Amino acid sequence: MASAPPAYDNELLQVHLELAAARLPGPDYYTVLRWIHQILKPQTYVEIGVRQGESLRAALAKTRCIAVDPLPALTGDFPPDTRVFPMTSDRFFESQDLRKLLAAPTFSLAFIDGLHLFEQALMDFVHLEPFAGRRSIILLHDCLPLDRVTSERVRTTHFYSGDVWKLPMCLMKHAKKLRMATIRTAPTGLCLVSNFDPASRALNGPSTDYLNEYLALGFADYQRNADGMPPTFANSFEAVSACIAYLLDGSARGGPEP
Predict the structure, then answer these.
(1) What end-to-end distance do the CA atoms of the chain give, in Å?
(2) Could you give the angle at which helices 29-40 and 237-249 cross, rounded to 10 degrees?
(3) Calpha distance 189→17 (Å, rounded)
(4) What is the distance between the alpha carbons of residues 138 and 3, in angstroms, rounded to a whole number?
(5) Does the pLDDT of residue 3 top 60, yes or no?
(6) What is the C-alpha separation between 237 and 248, in angstroms, rounded?
(7) What is the pTM of this model?
(8) Which of 15, 77, 95, 148 has its CA 20 to 30 A from that of 187?
(9) pLDDT in tens, 158-172
């Protein structure tokens, strides 16, 4: 018999949500996702980590969507051209031909929001990158952690981001040809990655090297290394538009803020 899910403190959840909203005011990341879809009008979209599907519903009606989650609990309506794969992302990339599923050599947009652990986010990124073109964008959730407890590797709170923030820090250091920026949207930020080179991988070393370098880091290391994180943009529609122009075209107009 399956064990019951852990019971988290709902009053503490409200405290964390209020702190997150005060730190990152304005629309939440679901709104920002909808803006990104509206701005890019992506032909194809891959989402890793679907849950009830609220982020998947941000996709446009004409977008071909591939959704991956071992335990999807989808509700509501989705874009008509959506296929859901109820399996882990590792199993998906082992067993499926993404190019065939997309009917295209590359994806337009992808969103990594599965397990909230650095090593899994790293593997999802490594698996997705061979299917990224010059103007593809990969989104990384939970890259502006709130505090030490909610960014621990072992979850003890309802509000939880894990240590996914280590991936953008890793990419900033070891994949300098990429363009990256983070939208300051509640509850824990949304990082955009682009400028992929189809002829070479951004991370050339073995994954064990990156795990050895970053796995043991904690929230204090994040606080000490703000300069090692991507530049940030506000979470207005205009700022998100400027962020995408910055990523895809290197536009200096409306560039990242200090």
Answers:
(1) 52
(2) 50
(3) 13
(4) 34
(5) no
(6) 17
(7) 0.94
(8) 77
(9) 999 999 999 999 999
Token pair, residue 86, equals: 């109820």
Using DSSP, state whether 190 is helix, strand or coil.
strand
Helix spans in the chain (H): 10-23, 29-40, 89-95, 98-102, 118-128, 166-174, 207-214, 219-224, 237-249
The CA distance from 85 to 102, in Å, is 13
- Delimit the domains of the chain by residue range: 28-249
For 113-123, what is the mean pLDDT? 96
Contact 128, 203 (CB under 8 A): no
Token pair 């997150």 in the structure block, residue:
20
Q: What is the 3-state secondary structure (H, E, C) of 31-59?
A: HHHHHHHHHHCCCEEEEECCCCCCCHHHC
Residues 229/168, Cβ–Cβ less than 8 Å: yes
Q: Tell me the CATH number for domain 28-249.
A: 3.40.50.150
Which residues is 138 bridged to in the sheet? 110, 193
C-alpha closest to that of 42 among 33, 50, 53: 33
